Amino acid sequence: MSTAVAMKPAQRLTGFMPLIALAALVAALTIADPDFLTQRSLIAVARTAAPLIVLAAGATLVVLCGGIDLSIAALASLSTVFLALWLPNLGGLATPAVIAVAAAIGAVQGVAHVLLRIPSFIVTLGGMAILSAVALVVSGAGTVRVVDDSPVHWLDLYLGGYVPMSAATALIVVAVIAVVLRVTPLRSWISATGYSESAARLAGTPVDLVKIGAFCVSGACAGLAAVMLVSRQFSGGPTMADNLLLPAVAAIVVGGTAITGGHGSVWRSLAGALVVTLLRVGLPIVGVPSAYEQILYGAIIVVAVALTLDRSKVSIVK
Amino acid sequence: MNALEVRGLVKHYPGVTALDGVDLAVRPNEVLGLAGENGAGKSTLLKALVGLVTPDAGTIHVRGEQVKLRSVVDAANHGIGMVFQEQSLVPNLTAAENIVLGSEGPAVRRGIYRWDVMRRLAQEQLDKIGSPIDPLARTDSLSFADRQMVEIAKVLRIEERSQHPPVVILDEPTSVLESKEIETLFAQIRRLREFATVIFVSHRLDEVLDVCDRVCVLRGGKSVGEVAAAGAVPRELHRMMIGSTGSDDHYHGSAATTVVEEQPRLSVRGLSGASFHDISFDVAPGEIVGIVGVHGSGREDVCRALFGAEPTTAGEIRMDGTRIDLPSTRAACAAGIGYVPAERKTEGMVGALSVAENMTLAKQQARCAGPFVAPKKQATLVDSWIRRLSIRTPGRDTPIQRLSGGNQQKVILARWLVAGDIRLLLLDHPTRGLDVGVRSEVYRLMRELAATGVATVLLGDSLEEAVGMADRILVMNDGRVATEVPCPTGAKPTPLDLVKEMV
Ligand SMILES: Nc1ncnc2c1ncn2[C@@H]1O[C@H](COP(=O)(O)OP(=O)(O)OP(=O)(O)O)[C@@H](O)[C@H]1O
Ligand SMILES: [Mg+2]
Predict the structure, then answer these.
(1) Which end of chain A is more exposed for a tag (fewer CB within 10 A), N or C?
(2) Domain of B33?
(3) B208, B288: one domain
């Protein structure tokens, strides 16, 4: 029994690894440039991180089920276009409408994946291409300006004067997903599906519904991320969110969620999204030359994954 | 000099001591049996011998010389090899490729396969065991038993590496084989003895005594003794394994319920699917119906079809008189049907999830209050089943993959019982890989469930098991029900009677 007691702290430590990696990164950036830890740059990080956190949180569910959603960024771009187009007519209703449409598009991809038995990688790769093209057509291949952004302006305010509303909203999204998973059987269902789909199915788990649900939430999150982007940029664009795809995937894996499914959490992805954003925003601030920035970025991501992935939970690392 | 010797081997895992100072000596050219309960440490010991497990203490000596085995390659260089279950072959490669895989040697020159050399190398290995398998046959076109022969041939490659008689380790090779295939395997093992040393593990004690020269018994990670196989009886071995005398009535026949004629619990009429045709039978409440048949008889698929896991093309299924549709496993669960699959590791359990989560996976309502998981309710429920089935686990939150095979199986069985709403239980090889004691406990549990009116369909691990447990037996042959044999306590047919119908 003594070994059991000795193992416990080490196991608990791997659970906190994403936070430790985050703290280490903040410390490193502060040492590199003591001015980094100012209110201004922290607010900048929080605001930049918000859409990424939301995107990563939604896609994490799909990854936990053992799939991947490559369409999130393209779907978010399309959603910015929809929002910009609909705001003049729908006003305050435009936001829920966009999120609902994005959720529906996500669900359709989920249904295609489940019913036609096509790998999620392929379905969402196709989805990404189609959604990008639709965005181009709908927007007339150009930026759609938002003249009156009052319905989404709330996201650009500051809670208590310091905390960006968008970041607070992102936190709430993560918390809601995490709490729902924690207090319902969904967590068991999702991780059983991700670890071993056939075992989950033979235990009567609603595997198909769980997967479609995950894609649906992932789509809704892409819609919400789009609202955040529009509120910041006063416009929608057919490629506006496209460059968020790889950072979102990086955020998920840096958080330590296993890309093979089953093991992980949205909290981990929150920490991962902050690490990725800190690197993006922080490296230029502390004066790393842009040529080295990419090298450092890549290296730190790999090191972070090496630290955060709990290999005792993941038997095969692909 | 001993071919292999182990002294004081210790291996700790979090919460368990798998090996607690094992001593073992293996003489050259003998077939050594290893017996012990589930979790006694047999697999851990064997894995230590092929470098898959690093012991915490103790030494391993090969032909008198102390060695440190860090990997499978290390062990192979010392002439020790393990035959894994058939999954370790790459299915879309030829037998020859699989045999030389990882030790290609002269079969590859400048990175390019030399097929003639490879074929010859593979043929040499196959010749050693006198197997007629075509080395150029694709592995997935071979039968179960043939694939195992390929595994053995693959392991025999180590002979060329170490220039010594090889030690071949077989961990539960018979658990997935049919009785005929087992005969072939045993013939091979006897042949191997001419030039190699064999270590053999099985939970079927009669088998162990049949094929081995000597049997060592492990209990709780310690060696507790050995017997010469000649003249020994399974009972004696079992007594050493558990340290006390086991019960006589293995199948708990005295607890068999008398089935009263009433409306059948399950009624199947004209059920057809890809591999079975026009299947009709009834199962009464409290009745245990065994289905026997060889590989390819379609009995596994019938079982899966009854659980909604295999599509059907015609026929109807009634539960307590009401016609039901089974488009999905979920529908079957809701109808009060439970299924224990044969492949426990890949289909039965979710290894990384805890005992509690695995136990409640199918019947979430049993641990929930409304839509929410109630941690207290779950703890009480799971703990009570852990006690009731005496599941040996460090705790309810331990990942199920850390448990020994028998305890894993008890958790999977409990999964269907926690809600108390089960009406029909489909058991596909429920005792595969379980030791005698646990098997007996599973039988007792089946009897208890039958007494409460649960209907059971049993695909037995052996004919003896089917005969011992069932009230009635269906013999399946080529996708059809060939005949139905009543099987009441006191008037059991012999397995031989059934074999005649099976082929
Ligand atoms: N990787 C592991 N992590 C934690 N515990 C383990 C691990 N492997 C084995 N154990 C534990 O070590 C003990 C011995 O296991 P082992 O697999 O050697 O038993 P066995 O004799 O082969 O049993 P079986 O007959 O069921 O195959 C068991 O209690 C098991 O739970
Ligand atoms: Mg074992």
Answers:
(1) C
(2) 4-242
(3) no
CA distance linking residue B288 with residue B474, whole number of Å: 11
Same domain, B377 and B432: yes
- In this structure, is the dihedral angle defined by the CA atoms of residues B95, B97, B98 and B100, taken in order, positive or negative? positive
pLDDT single digits (tens) B85-118: 656 788 889 988 888 887 777 777 788 888 888 8
Task: Please report whether residue B328 resides in a domain.
Answer: yes
Window B:340-379, CB contacts with A under 8 Å: 341, 346-353, 357, 360-362, 364, 367-368, 371-373
Give the CATH number, domain containing residue B336: 3.40.50.300
Residues near A19 by beta carbon (within 8 Å), at least 6 away in sequence: A271
Distances (CA, A) of B455 to A283, B257, B447: 67, 11, 10
* Tens digit of each residue's pLDDT (9 = 90 or more) over B29-87: 999 999 998 888 999 999 999 999 999 999 999 999 999 999 988 898 899 999 876 56
Give B189 Cα–ligand 1 centroid separation in angstroms: 26
B277 and B213 fall within a common domain: no
Pick the closest to residue A119 from A67, A70, A73, A75 (CA basis). Answer: A67
Nearest to A205 among B334, B348, B361 (CB): B361
CB contact under 8 A, B348 and A7: no
pLDDT, tens digit, 9 for 90 and up, residues B430-469 = 998 888 888 888 999 999 999 999 999 999 888 889 999 9
How far apart, in whole angstroms, are the C-alpha atoms of residue B138 and residue B134? 9
pLDDT of residue A190: 97
Q: Considering B209, B242, B275, which residue would you say is the last residue of a domain?
A: B242
| Statement to judge: residues B178 and B316 lie in one domain | no
Same domain, B292 and B166: no
**Taking 80 as the threshold, does the pLDDT of residue A223 lie above it?**
yes
pTM over 0.90, yes/no? no
- Tally the domains of chain B: 2
Residues 6+ away with beta carbon under 8 Å from B159: B79, B128, B165, B166, B195, B196
Q: Are residues B274 and B391 in the same domain?
A: yes
ipTM over 0.95: no
Interface of A with B in 150-189 (CB under 8 A): 183-185, 188
